[in-house]
Queue: 2 jobs
Job 1
Amino acid sequence: MTPEEEAEFKRRQKARNLVVAGTLLFFVALFYMITVARLGSQ
Amino acid sequence: MGKPGSLDQDFGERAWKGALLFESNFGQDMSASLQKTQSRVQALPAEWRDFFALTKPRVMTLVIFTAICGLLAAPGTIHPDLGLTAVLAIAMGAGGAAVLNQWWEADLDAGMKRTANRPLPGGRIRRDDARDFGMLLSGMSLVLMGLAVGWLASALLLMAIVYYAVIYTIWLKPRTPQNIVIGGGAGAFPPLIGWVAVTGEVTAMPILLFAIIFFWTPPHFWALALFVKTDYAKVGIPMLPVVAGERTTRNHIWIYTLVLAPIAMAPWLIGETSWVYGTTALVLSLLFIALALPVARRNAVMGERDPMAEEIRLFKFSVIYLFVLFAALVADRLLEALGLIGPGLLAGGIAG
């Protein structure tokens, strides 16, 4: 792998990691909201 | 499905064995081409944007829109957070089914100009990654819908995913020229699920919303298939214009357009909506019929240079038709909730 390819590899990996982290945080917040909404309706 | 030895049956037999294209020369070419692009990409991880593109975001706008309309038009209330979660789950389910569709059809997509640059045939994502992503997205959508909204809505979402990814993509699309008719059911689920998310039961109205999209899909898609038919013919998909010819396709477009009109009017006729929806549906149906008529009447064999202006116009209008019709349904409910309009014409008449 050339230095350019390695840099591109790391850039893509970092971008994907950030998206996965953002998605996980979003679902944590979403499930909190769902729980509050469901408990509130009971 | 078709007569023994017919083109229809030949397509079906090969596809059902999972070897539709591998048995033919052009199939081997496309498969080899896909393998080349697949081996080229393995060195780098896929971009997250390509995963997003696999979910067919443009198609999803219509899915999300009709799901929201079903949700807003349903009688009753739902907590806004749960309503948004229901729409998110429907979008995730539709996205997951779209990913599985592209995973299965990567060979076909490689052979069509319109789809050759999608992430899989374009060599930007590994095929197994696409399959896993599609399964994950679909599974998560079902769990999310079940936990947040209800298991009836989740079961309907499962039906929609199986309908699109298995019944349409794997079974009907390569097997019969009527693929679009039954396959249209997959796209008809979102407003039904949205409605059920609020009410918790399947009644006449959500079934009518399902029927509207079900009968809208054939004229919408066959209009498209008329002006991109060379692509479908190239990869051996038995679209109606390829297998039965343009004349039959035009007749089918006309018949389904006429069937669609009373179904689109039905929510008004059974007293579930007011004149706001009723007149909108009437005007839209008349326009649809007026635009479908020249498409149905064209007789000449169209050449490569034919612009297919009427077919393109009908296709574009069909998209507007569905957006406006569902928007009118929601507007009708909102105006009724605000007390600005009365009940449906028939119901009002009987009551009076």
Job 2
Amino acid sequence: MSDSTDEALVREFVRTGSRAAFSQLYYRYKDKVFNTAYRIVGEYEGARDVAHDVFLKVYVEAPGFMFKASFSSWLYRIAVNRSLDEARRAKRRRTSSVDALPGELASGRDSDLPESSVIGKEAGAEFAEALSALSPKLRTVITLRYFEGLTYEQIAEVLGRPIGTVKSRLRRAHHKLGDKLNAMGFTPPEGDYGLFNLSGNDA
Amino acid sequence: MDCSTCREMMLEFVEGTLPAKVAAGVAEHVKSCPSCMKELEKQSSRTRVLQSLGRVQAPDQWEEISRSIRRTGPWYFVTKYGIVAVIAGIVAAVAIVAAIAFLPALRHASPSGSSSNPSPAPAESAGR
């Protein structure tokens, strides 16, 4: 069953109530759901709550899933909606708190942060701080595009918005991110960051 | 291509999602425009850094989720969001369904002289 498609697993789970099929879907998607939540909410514990609720919702609502969209798009949609909700709650908690703690993405206190992997710890932390300054909506498109690697079309399906809206949100997110990084005096880490080949047209 | 159009397409250019012909136009403009070239370098660097940020190790919550399913199942949301919110949702759903179900009956109950009543009255009266 480990090679089964998502659709086969969902159908198996709905038809027989198979806990094994559901468990397989969980382990297949737990990283994606948790990371999406973590990037949008900005808090580890908040992301845990979101992931928990998302899979419970999938468990409850799977019998009504009509396969009009892919299972992963449906799952991402649930995760994004629940994460945006949690981000609002987290913001209320922070603003009502005397300490007004910033998100963990900004403070970089979470030891699980992987930002040091390629670009260096300092640059990663600066980038994370700039990201945390974006609105949850803009963080959502950045998360789906760069952390989850979804195409514009897939993001549009998840958000239920036209592709044009997705592109304009991404552009806005980049613009704001650039402004924030400039204000922080961020300089890109050294290395070959050239993505484009101006001599060719294969960009 | 002017600077404004070039900037508009820069993100897709960097991500390699533009059609080849349009990408060539962007490349052509950037080569002759230092300001757009600078912006392109920034955009490229930002994109590459974003793509290089890794994933967080997700905790294994299977046991926790299984427990919630076993203990509460569908009632989990009642306990989490409160019985009042859930009942309000159910009442709203019932009201909508009832409105849809009784709408035809309400239409029939409207006065016979109403212009919206599609009754065959004229034919009947003609028969008498």
